[in-house]
């Protein structure tokens, strides 16, 4: 039962009917039962893993909550009796206790993730480089482990940070962890935004059904009409990528960019659409990433929920951690005696050292975060390379930002002009596109070689087969892909320029046009979608992560 | 939700269903010729066909029913699709009996030599062209490989991607509509290619496959159980010289033991009067000249051997008279094209629909 299968939609329909038929206060139970059934049908063997994570996080959060409550209670009781030193000592003591609880649950859960995801990779490295003979675990990754682990740990850290009280009902918490539409590939949900919607029981509203249905169709269009077609082409092109010309290699990268975006964002649209039909608004995971004018902006528009998680729970804590702040301050201290510079100087009114002191902690934290993003994608050097590629580019762009500003001023570039914005968008797309080489290459060295090939002349000595390459798709299929991509581009451009969703605009302006387009989209998916015997539809690229 | 919202949803669902139904009937076509050919069978009035011929392409390229009617007065139809495999015979026979209760059933035996009796394409040419029925569902359950059964039950799953044949499929739909308006099929599923194949000497062992034996037995059991009296198994003539093998002899024995007839017409080319370098469009199929000779010979054989009754309702006779009245025009046209070795296209009843032809 994949997200694009008829079985899945029959399942969703059944859930919708039952959900809206039973009393509101019990509706969350329907979602829980549906989520467990869905997960069980998809990956029964993985069920113990997700149950363990849910249970351990729920218990850990409850424990943390108890410690916090007890501390508050004792504080209140001892309001006048304690001097500041005693109060501080007690706070330190409880903080220590809480840190231990947090560390225990984090280590347990991230430990499971790390062992299952990276153990075999580490063993392979040891066996290969140190002549070891360690045996592999050979266990298939539990379905959605990265997503539910991150989501659960985010909840736990929030409880630790006392942003909210813990959920006392284990079943309610289990629903938050296992909520069926998002379990396969996210988005990673913020507890405070998702959980209340899950628990309160939503009313049956026509707008929810309509918007949700339209979002599902749009997602299926991107996934089944475009991405799955391009996947067929990549299956033909990737095995011969070493034999084909540089131009074809660039084309492979373009195809992969389009496929990955349509696959992942399409899948997320289906997930959000199902949520929408249930009256539950789930986190937005994509905001037209290929309109980004810089790599940092790209990462605020691509896989938003993961990046937001990493920003909140990793990047900021590292950047504002005591060692990092001390490190930055020490550098700034060193250059304090130097004379002050004008605002429009090369380093933006600071000396180089002062600038370093200001941005280096954040830049190093960014580098670390992206290394982790890379490794999160998979246990291999090429994914580490993916992280390093992004991290290093962002590191230097942060470091050299004042220089770029200085150059822009010196060259009198109109940064508000369309030409400049288009240049920024294209530049970002190239950087992002090249980074995807790490995804499709056969290892780190192959990725670097592919990137190198992209920078050598198109008609260089590596041109073997020329135009005789089999793209795996017929001309008519390419017509569908190009038309589909143009539609996606037009919709994205409209949203980018107006800030409005096409669905909302259409529904507001003309309900009939909206219905006709919905019907058109449905027919397009049914006719042009890639499914049926011999078609490996339903597999999502991000399922593997 | 308000009542008007439910109405909107209902209208949308109904519209979607209608469009999908249309798309399904347009796109679910495995083979254009076979789809139209089998459609014609269902247009024939019940119990109006005297002889049903079942088999692969050598049947519908070799036997021209309206000519047999003109010469002998019995009605017939080629319930035949290209590369029709043996498992389909039993269901084709059941269909023929259910709809027509024919006086004689004829089966072409070359299909029993196929190694892959469950070839998807071959099964689809026949099964996907049938309207939905209990028989079709049973056939899918019993002879289609399990992993393909879902897509046979719901052929749209496979054929939705046929949109790239839109023009041809629209033509199929038009042809069917035109045939429906006309009320019958003019050429009764006959098809030929206007070309004269020069003689090529080829010798092949007539080796019946193990699965061929299995499906032959299934067919014989069914025919006996259905108490069908007149059944003739034939091997249509072609350019190939067949070497009889033990399995060939075993096949004939099985057929005769079951009380049915077998005739190897491949050995009767001289009696039929076949001009080898002139009467075939390729090594295994007659062109229109060969088909005329073969039809004349086989119709005569059937009439003499089975003493077929030719009495029918006036309406049926009127239909067949109309078909026969066009024999000269259609066969003449095809002969002319064949003499010119016009081209390699298969001419079928679609090409002779009025008023287009």
List the helices and strands and how they pair.
The complex is a heterodimer of chains A (545) and B (357).
Chain A: H1 6-21, H2 27-43, H3 47-77, H4 84-129, H5 145-160, H6 170-178, H7 191-200, H8 206-237, H9 246-277, H10 295-301, H11 304-319, H12 322-334, H13 352-377, H14 381-399, H15 401-410, H16 418-435, H17 437-440, H18 444-454, H19 475-498, H20 502-509, H21 511-528
Helix pairs in contact in A: 1-2, 2-6, 3-4, 3-5, 3-6, 4-5, 6-7, 8-9, 8-19, 8-21, 11-13, 12-13, 13-14, 20-21
Chain B: H1 3-27, H2 32-43, E1 51-55, H3 57-62, H4 65-72, E2 76-80, H5 87-100, E3 104-108, H6 120-127, H7 134-143, H8 149-153, H9 156-159, H10 166-182, E4 191-192, E5 203-206, H11 210-225, E6 231-235, E7 241-244, H12 246-257, E8 261-264, H13 269-272, E9 280-282, E10 285-286, H14 288-306, H15 314-325, H16 327-339, E11 347-348
Parallel strand pairs in B: 1-2, 1-3, 3-6, 5-7, 6-8
Antiparallel strand pairs in B: 4-11, 9-10
Helix pairs in contact in B: 2-10, 4-14, 4-15, 5-7, 5-11
């Amino acid at each position: 039962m994949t997200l694009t299968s008829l079985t899945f939609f029959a399942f969703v329909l059944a859930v919708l009917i039952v959900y809206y038929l039973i009393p509101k206060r019990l509706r969350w139970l329907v979602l829980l039962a549906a989520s467990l059934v869905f997960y069980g049908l998809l990956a029964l063997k993985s069920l113990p893993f997700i149950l363990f994570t849910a249970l351990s996080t729920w218990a850990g959060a409850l424990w943390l909550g108890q410690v916090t409550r007890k501390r508050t209670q004792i504080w209140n009781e001892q309001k006048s009796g304690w001097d500041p030193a005693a109060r501080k000592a007690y706070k330190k003591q409880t903080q220590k206790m809480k840190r231990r609880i947090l560390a225990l649950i984090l280590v347990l859960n991230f430990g499971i993730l790390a062992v299952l995801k990276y153990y075999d990779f580490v063993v392979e490295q040891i066996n290969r480089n140190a002549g070891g003979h360690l045996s592999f675990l050979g266990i298939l990754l539990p379905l959605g482990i990265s997503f539910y682990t991150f989501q659960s740990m985010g909840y736990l850290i929030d409880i630790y940070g006392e942003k909210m009280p813990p959920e006392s009902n284990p079943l309610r918490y289990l629903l938050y962890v296992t909520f069926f539409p998002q379990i396969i590939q996210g988005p990673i949900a913020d507890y405070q935004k998702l959980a209340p919607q899950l628990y309160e029981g939503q009313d049956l509203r026509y707008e929810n059904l309509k918007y949700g249905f339209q979002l599902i169709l749009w997602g299926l269009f991107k996934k089944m009409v475009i991405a799955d077609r391009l996947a067929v082409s990549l299956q033909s092109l990737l095995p011969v990528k070493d034999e084909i010309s540089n131009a074809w290699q660039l084309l492979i990268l373009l195809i992969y960019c389009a496929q990955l975006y349509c696959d992942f964002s399409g899948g997320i649209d289906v997930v959000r659409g199902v949520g929408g039909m249930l009256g539950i608004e789930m986190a937005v995971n994509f905001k037209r990433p290929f309109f980004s004018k810089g790599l940092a902006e790209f990462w605020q528009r691509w896989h938003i929920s993961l990046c937001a998680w990493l920003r909140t729970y990793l990047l900021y804590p590292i950047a504002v951690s005591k060692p990092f702040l001390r490190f930055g301050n020490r550098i700034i201290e060193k250059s304090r005696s130097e004379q002050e510079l004008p605002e429009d100087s090369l380093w933006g009114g600071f000396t180089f050292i002062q600038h370093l002191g200001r941005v280096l902690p954040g830049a190093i934290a960014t580098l670390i975060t992206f290394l982790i993003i890379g490794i999160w994608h998979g246990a291999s050097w090429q994914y580490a390379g993916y992280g390093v590629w992004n991290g290093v580019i962002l590191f230097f762009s942060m470091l050299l930002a004042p220089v770029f500003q200085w150059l822009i001023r010196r060259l009198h570039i109109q940064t508000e002009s369309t030409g400049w914005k288009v240049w920024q968008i294209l530049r970002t797309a190239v950087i992002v596109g090249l980074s995807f080489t790490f995804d499709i290459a056969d290892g780190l060295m192959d990725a670097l070689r592919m990137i190198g090939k992209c920078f050598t002349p198109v008609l260089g000595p590596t041109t073997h087969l020329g135009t005789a390459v089999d793209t795996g798709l017929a001309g008519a299929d390419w017509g569908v892909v190009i038309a589909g991509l143009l539609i996606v581009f037009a919709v994205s451009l409209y949203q980018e320029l107006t800030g409005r969703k096409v669905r909302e605009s259409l529904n507001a302006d003309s309900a009939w046009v909206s219905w006709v387009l919905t019907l058109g989209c449905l027919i397009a998916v049914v006719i042009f979608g890639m499914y049926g015997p011999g078609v490996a539809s339903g597999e999502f690229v991000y399922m593997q992560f | 939700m308000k009542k008007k919202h439910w109405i909107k949803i209902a209208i949308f669902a109904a519209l979607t269903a209608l469009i999908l139904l249309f798309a399904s009937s347009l796109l679910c076509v495995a083979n254009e010729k076979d789809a139209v050919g089998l459609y014609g069978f269902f247009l024939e009035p019940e119990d109006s066909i005297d002889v049903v011929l079942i088999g692969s392409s050598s049947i519908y390229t070799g036997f021209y029913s309206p000519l047999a009617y003109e010469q002998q007065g019995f009605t017939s139809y080629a319930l035949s699709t290209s590369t029709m495999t043996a498992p389909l015979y039993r269901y084709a026979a059941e269909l023929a009996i259910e709809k027509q209760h024919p006086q004689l059933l004829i089966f072409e035996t070359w299909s029993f030599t196929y190694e892959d009796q469950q070839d998807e394409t071959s099964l689809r040419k026949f099964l996907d062209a049938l309207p939905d029925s209990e028989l079709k569902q049973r056939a899918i359950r019993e002879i289609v490989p399990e992993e393909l059964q879902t897509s046979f039950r719901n052929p749209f799953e496979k054929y939705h991607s046929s949109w790239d044949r839109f023009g041809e499929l629209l033509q199929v739909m038009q042809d069917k509509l035109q045939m429906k308006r006309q009320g019958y099929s003019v050429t009764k599923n006959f098809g030929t290619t206007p070309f004269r194949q020069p003689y090529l000497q080829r010798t092949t062992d007539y080796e019946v496959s193990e699965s061929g034996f299995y499906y032959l037995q299934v067919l014989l059991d069914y025919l006996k159980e259905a108490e069908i009296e007149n059944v003739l198994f034939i091997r249509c003539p072609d350019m190939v010289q067949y070497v009889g093998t033990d399995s060939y002899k075993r096949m004939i024995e099985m057929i005769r033991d079951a009380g049915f007839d077998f005739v190897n017409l491949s050995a009767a080319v001289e009696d039929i009067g076949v001009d080898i370098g002139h009467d075939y469009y390729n090594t295994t199929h007659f062109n229109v000249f060969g088909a005329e000779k073969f039809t004349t010979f086989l119709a005569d054989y059937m009439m003499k051997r089975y003493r077929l009754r030719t009495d029918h309702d006036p309406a049926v006779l009127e239909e067949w008279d109309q078909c026969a009245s066009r024999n000269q025009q259609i066969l003449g046209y095809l002969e002319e094209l064949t003499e010119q070795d016009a081209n390699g296209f298969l001419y079928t009843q679609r090409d002779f629909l009025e008023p287009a032809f």
